């Protein structure tokens, strides 16, 4: 089974992002891409800089607990913002919602583990479970390149990954 959402990515190194924020704006950029995908750019009416300030970005990045707490505050009580498993992340993709993915060799204490990124937030945009599970992400760009879709094998990266879903709560 394969599913991939059509997502407009964004670079954390865009000239629209404050220069001092760029090296550590991957978390806010991920939130920005996710919110624009969910609600549309006109509805969100916030910049990556706004998300950086609102989420509590720092020079060393955005902590998971801050991402979750401040996205809950932003979205309100009708939304679940929490960690999830890779299976739950795939279900979110199936439901048409992006998932925030954090690569983190440092806080997972996997300093010497080879990883696609040492510390980086990205939006998960799809998966291919036909054979070995492959995940598709937008990588939020780099100093000299735009955001692009990338893929990786889940098995090779699973020890450094954290998935955060943003799901509307069902009220009866």
From TrEMBL:
Residues 6-138 form the Peptidase C39-like domain. It holds the Pfam family Peptidase_C39_2. InterPro entries: Peptidase_C39-like. This is Peptidase C39-like domain-containing protein. Gene3D superfamilies: Cysteine proteinases (3.90.70.10).
